[in-house]
Give the backbone structure.
Amino acid sequence: MTRPHPVRHDDDLLAYVEAGTSPYHAVEEAADRLRAAGFRELSESDHWADTTGGCFVADGGTLIAWYAPAGTPGAAPVRLVTANTDAPNLRIGRSPDTAARGWRRISVEPHGPVRLDSWLDRDLGVSGRLALYDGSTRLVCVDRPLLRAPQPGPGAGTGRGPAPLWGLGGEDPGRLLSLLAGEADVHTSDVLGWDLMLHDMQRPAFLGDAGEFVTSARLNNLVSVHAGLTALLSAAERGPSTVTAFAAFDHMAAAPGAAGAPQCALLERVLHRGVEARGGCRDDWQRAVAGTLAVCAGMTDALHPDSGEPYRPMPNGGPVVDLGTGRAGTAEFARACERAGVPWQATGWGESLGGHQGDGSPLALLLASRLGIPVLDVGLPGLSLNSVRELCGAHDPRLLTRALTEFLLTDPPH
């Protein structure tokens, strides 16, 4: 979204989250912002003669962008920020049109650890991507109240997931597809498949007496996508001394191990080709990897007012750093926070960011295992994570962005 005048960071975040109704729309919005800043889009099928300056690769719901100063050697290390573009939500199945007792219904499946009850009694739209028989794709977004999953009726059983209503009448196979094909300006017979999801129609907003909170759908994890993207653009403007990069991955909210490996392979290919395009050899690639450091940005549970836990981070206290494993890069990120004047909080006493026991979030583990680089978990505290509508501090996204910008500008050790 290109704006003629500067806007407040939190207002810009709300605009970005509202536009990113699906991972595909989130990447499309990010790509528009990169182009407006002068970044060049590269295709994996093309020859890369020059990868200096600002460049990016977009592949569906995944985006990899970087800035390499002119004259950067092939062996230059990378400062990398990663996040994921997808959020736990409800996805439309292969045979969506169903009916029950005179109501038209849509069959949906949970994507990730969805809090199903939070989707009840909300006005819902549909967005995502259609795959066509000619090999192309079309984004589609029905951004108006189309569906609603009502509370279970009297005598209804428990444990069943939402089955949204969208009209009266019997089952009408193909009706939803016909509607969505029309929205994308294609014929129904052109559609081969789809990746479609429901999104909440309530707009992002500030909450609280002083507006000290942000409440919105998809905060986990578009708040980190926005922070990482904005940090890369800010770092590029200030002139980094080495390669700075941002990667946002799809399909990380559900089964990240199975879906994440190909995306980590894509990141590895892109980084490797960047080294080669700058004149580097195999030894230069190994040296670049040896000096690379990554931050995996996400969200973590804040201290709940009804919780008996002795410690949890608080909103508007700054980003949270996982200290539980003593991994490399913690001190470097802490120093970046100090240079940026950003307070930070710590976790790591038995539980890492994202609520995963052990050595880090799934995305961080994938990056570390695939590339063999140190990956530090960093996040923002929030409430109602994985619900249709989440909450975080209104100041934290700006603080995270400032910290990530300084991290990207950090000179690698010699």
Q: What stands out?
A: Confidence is low (pLDDT under 50) at residues 1-6, 354-359. The longest strand covers residues 89-100. The two ends are 39 Å apart (CA to CA). The longest helix spans residues 256-277.
